[in-house]
Amino acid sequence: MKFRHYFIQSSLVVVPTFVIGCGTLGTYYAKTELPNPPQTSRELVDVKESTSIADTKNSLGDVRANDIPLDVQKTFIENSDTPIKLAAEILPVDFESSSSSTYEASYLREPEGLPLPEPEESTEHGESQSVGLPELVELALKHNPSIQQASATAHKASGLRTQVGLKPNPLIGYFGEEMGSDSSAGLQGAFVSQTFITGGKLEANRRVLDQDYQSILWEVETQRYRVRTDVRIRFYEALAAQRRLELAKNFLAVATKGRDLAQERFDVQEGARPDVLQSEIQLSEIEIIRQRAAVEYQAAWNALVAVVGLTEMTPRRLRGQLPEQLDEKDFETLYQELLNTSPELQTAYARLNTARAQMKRQDIQAIPNITGQLGVGRDNGIGENFANVQLSLPLPIHNRNQGNIQAAYADYCRASQDVARLKLAIRSRLVNALRTYHQSLVSVNQYASTILPKSQESMNLSEQAYIAGEFDFLRVLVARRTYFETNLSYVQARADLAIANARIEGLLLSGGLTAPVEYGRDDSLRGQALSGQ
Hints:
Oligomer: single chain
Strand order of the largest sheet: 4-5-7-8
Mean pLDDT: 79
């Protein structure tokens, strides 16, 4: 075989790459001396970003990401030479990893909240018809649609992570030239062409999407916490409504006895008709309280099962007890625990890693791809075979990806500041939650130790004095009303304490029916890598 056409098109280029400094638009820095993003009054070196879970697993063994101290979770900001490794594959709900996956598998365990007050089980109204907080939380984690929605988003990110790392397909074709020249078939042949992606662009694509996948998995975990917290809050609201309904029924029985007593004294001419009327008025007021409590319980139950995701559940008795005594909580201790365990903050760390991986990805985009083509054919004019070999690559003279590098670094700056912002937001939320907790704790302790015993004693003494003819009936009515209202206020204070405690133990995350964050990235990184521009 004789090579009739043989030529090679190639060139060697050196591509200088620059990035623009955040906060100093117009000033360029060499990529080897990447400036730190601008910080707040505290250097962001104090912001300890999380590494990928694969990195943690390699250094610490198979442990939970939530248990890793922050000083171990340093990211790559402080040392730009640290490689970004592929993170472990944390599987979302109902996700089955492909057997062909090359990622090291690790599983994000079900997070464990701080201990809740143990519910006090009751045998009233049929134990089989009652339901407790643990069962409701378990049902919510299975049936709440927002968790499944967040999991589906993780599936999407996983698929795109695979797609952006795929190599381009080869191209085959036919060519014919000079057909009809000299009454011959001319040049006839076939060729195969392949683009070779250089600079590790496809691997860098997958690193970017891998960190995206990490952030989405933390979003799934965040949504689970939101659902758990909302179930606990709705449970304690319904439990308080149930308790108020029970108290109203008890008050109704007490008021009925008071009305009967006033009627008996009136019948024997020891009491007055206004006493009977006042007792009947109070009885009617308590009946209103009972009916309102029943409506409130029904509404609280409906709100509870809506968060659980099983609206067809019929109302039933709730097993549990509102807390009567909890320990005081230290602000700084809680704040550090939140920084160490918050999946919301871990999401921000993963996004910071994504921004840094994207910066590295755009930094190598200007490295030219190489396109190779091999063709073979026959020159029918002279009856000889020939082969054709071509190599080509673009010259990055005008477009060196400057704009994308600048944009990637701006995203990195924004992500780093988002970590700092989120820490402050968590601190602000903790201030409000802890204030409510301590206020409710003071109220509960005061009601339990002083107000309730005295109101009980006052009502008993007033009724005894009325029977003995020492007090008028008005003082008895006032004592009863004080006792009723005091008990209702005590239930509300205990409910407020339980709800505040649930918010703190739920890492200040709520919104179990809020739509999870939509994943907006596509496979455009692969198209950018294949284009060579």
